[in-house]
Amino acid sequence: MHNSYRQAKFLLSCPSLKGCPNDSGYEVIFAGRSNAGKSSAINTLTEQKKLAKVSRTPGRTQHLVFFELENDRRLVDLPGYGYAKVPDSVKQDWHQNMSQYFDNRKCIKAAILVMDCRHPLKPFDQMMLEWCINSKVPVNILLTKSDKLKKGAASSARLSVMKAVKDSPSINVQLFSSLKKEGVPELCTYLDKIFEMSNEG
Questions:
Q1: Are 52 and 42 in contact (CB under 8 A)?
Q2: From residue 39, how far is each of 13, 95, 167, 196 by CA, in Å?
Q3: I want to staple 63 with a disulfide (CB 3.0 to 4.6 A). Which of 13, 82, 145, 183 is the partner?
């Protein structure tokens, strides 16, 4: 599949599970705190500068956004939370929608959990990891903005996250830089494996 990610197209965006595409095929979700570089990671993966909207106001995206690949495969951009000054009622709605999405959506095959490599494993990240583990969804942690750290410091950040999640064998940890295009082949290989395994299953 390796470069079918370039063919990714916007499919639809919806505020809750009700508007999602049919629960068939194979979905890989991208989740992350606001400002972790999630949209940039999707754009770098697909080699499309404007596929995922990079917001100057973190946390603006309150919808699930679906991107279509070939053969009933999709990438899903989940709403980010963190810096955004979002009302509690909106956060509660988001929490409820995400819980339902994880509990009820059968076509989720893996999650790409995006974290700024300088600030990994914040409470939001831990919550997403718990949801994924409880739903038996494999996770690839993408430690973004690795270009902001020297090589040794970036490797140390990766090792400390690997240590923190070592009890969960279904979690992979990699460094990634949208700016330098580092970690893209590794991410493609991970996604290829997930989609191929799903197809065989």
A1: yes
A2: 14, 20, 29, 24
A3: 13
Report d(CA 4, CA 162) in Å as an integer.
Answer: 29
How far is residue 20's CA from residue 140's CA, in Å, rounded to a whole number?
Answer: 23
Please report which confidence band the pLDDT of residue 96 belongs to, taking 50, 70 and 90 as the band edges. Answer: confident
- 3-class SS string, the chain: CCCHHHHCEEEEEECCHHHCCCCCCEEEEEEECCCCCHHHHHHHHHCCCCCCCCCCCCCCCCCEEEEECCCCEEEEECCCCCCCCCCHHHHHHHHHHHHHHHHHCCCEEEEEEEEECCCCCCHHHHHHHHHHHHCCCCEEEEEECHHHCCHHHHHHHHHHHHHHCCCCCCEEEEECECCCCECHHHHHHHHHHHHHHHHHC
For residue 77, give both structure tokens: 């951009």
- CA-to-CA distance for 172 and 84, rounded, in angstroms? 28
Convert the pLDDT of each residue in 151-190 to its tens digit. Answer: 999 999 999 999 999 999 999 999 999 999 999 999 999 9
Q: Give the other-Cβ count within 10 Å of 197's Cβ.
A: 13
C-alpha to C-alpha distance for 155 and 161, rounded to whole angstroms: 10
CB 177 within 8 A of CB 183: yes
